Amino acid sequence: MRRLRNVKIVATLGPASSDYETIRALFEAGADVFRLNMSHGTHDDIAARHAIIRKVEEDTGRPIAILADLQGPKLRVGTFDGPHDLEEGQAFRLDLDPAEGDATRVCLPHKEIFAALEPGASLLVNDGKIRLKVEKCGPDFADCTVVVGGTISNRKGVNVPDVVLPLAALSEKDRADLEFACELGVDWLALSFVQRPEDVIEARDLARGRASILSKIEKPAAVKAFAEILTVSDGIMVARGDLGVELPVQAVPPIQKRLVRACRSAAKPVIVATQMLESMIESPVPTRAEVSDVATAIYEGADAVMLSAESAAGKYPIEAVRTMNNVAISVESDPTYREVIESSRRADRNTVADAIVAAAREVAETMKVKAISCFSQSGTTVTLVARERPRAPIVALTPLVPTARRLCLTWGVHCVITDEQYRFKGAVISAVRAVLKYGFAVETDQIVVLAGVPFNVPGTTNILRVAPCEERLIYRSEPE
Asked: Which fold has domain 352-475?
């Protein structure tokens, strides 16, 4: 089950991919991480899919990461007496009156929005298809002018791009879902509609180390506060759906590029998501533009690319994963890919570990070794190696199953669960056996081994060794 690419694939599970056979086929086609969308399905549904993933993991002998995506606060208008067409230039009121709406007004049951609004602010309804401009507002109403008209109906979503809303990133449902997901044993928690670093800190406090925290960047406020959000997050998702609603669509590609580079520099995994192969919901083949979109994210050095409805509710979930896998293999075999990746390599190196991993990449490329093998408790050394985007594969060895699973989201990492080591000699033996077993090297090759002394203490990476693979013969009598 060795992957022939470095970028990882995240596949969302749903009605089209909820049985063992399909989930295993998705894994075998190339999915490295499975996303459980907490916006859809009951806790029983989520638990059943989680159990199937763990069964696939057991049967294939490869760690698999599970990402639980929290819904976040959903802002929606109330109900109407029927659909209504709003015309450009007409007046329209939003208020707290729960009565059914009509062509002149509707309930917006979120007093926090009214508290934050100011005249001149924009309100976007139904994924931005309708645009309203606030003319006058108070604590329980907003009188607006329709700037872009369209049909409005029950419970359409509302976006407020111009202001930071005084809303917690975690609703009561999110808090319940977070606790459920952590107890279930997911590896990553994705936070929706993050606006400020405090939102991430709150989720981290609730998770209590049971899962890593991934912040979804989908609001202008999050883009503005990105440096602070990145600092307190374990990973990032560039969620281009709502980002493209709240910002001009032409602003999204440069933001994507900037965020991916910042994450690479910080050695934190970044997922590019939303509408990557959208046409494959209905079609067995993607459009050329979609293939180019996936390729662009890979050329930028993203850790992972994600499928949403394509694998959750589409007609061709396995074909979508296989297509993404094939695009990744093609892009990464292009000489231009290495030129782009290496020219965009930027990192501040201030620690011994930074120096060791940079040296490992240089040694691996100079001597053309077959793999860089890292022993890690927390996974930090592995992510630092991945930040270098080396040409040699990264083989991460850890005795901790949760660490191995979390690293499945990190660029170029092949995770191997091994026995705990107490001596560097034993670490070298385990590394050599792993690269031989999984086909990264043969006995005439060499590998780079990274580890730290004292062993089993996070943050002590301080040893680099070039090891010949035939060294395993010396210790053949040691137990496997």
From this structure: Pyruvate Kinase; Chain: A, domain 1 (3.40.1380)
- Which of 470 and 336 is assigned the larger pLDDT? 336
DSSP per-residue string spanning 340-377: HHHHT------SHHHHHHHHHHHHHHHHT-S-EEEE-S
Q: Please give the residue that has the higher pLDDT: either 10 or 164.
A: 10
Burial (CB < 10 A; 0-12, 13-18, 19+), residue 61, is exposed
Mean pLDDT of the region 381-410: 96
Residue 473 pLDDT: 47
Query: Which of the following is catalytic: 22, 54, 74, 76?
Result: 76
Is 35 part of the annotated catalytic residue set? yes
Please identify which of the residues 35, 370, 387, 406 carries the catalytic annotation. Answer: 35
What is the structure's pLDDT at 480? 40
Counting beta carbons within 10 angstroms of the beta carbon of residue 339, is it exposed (0 to 12), middle (13 to 18) or buried (19 or more)? exposed
- Is 380 considered catalytic here? no
Domains 84-159 and 352-475 share a fold: no
Name the one residue in this structure whose structure tokens are 């309203």: 132
- The mean of the pLDDT values for the chain is 93
Average pLDDT over residues 304-330: 98
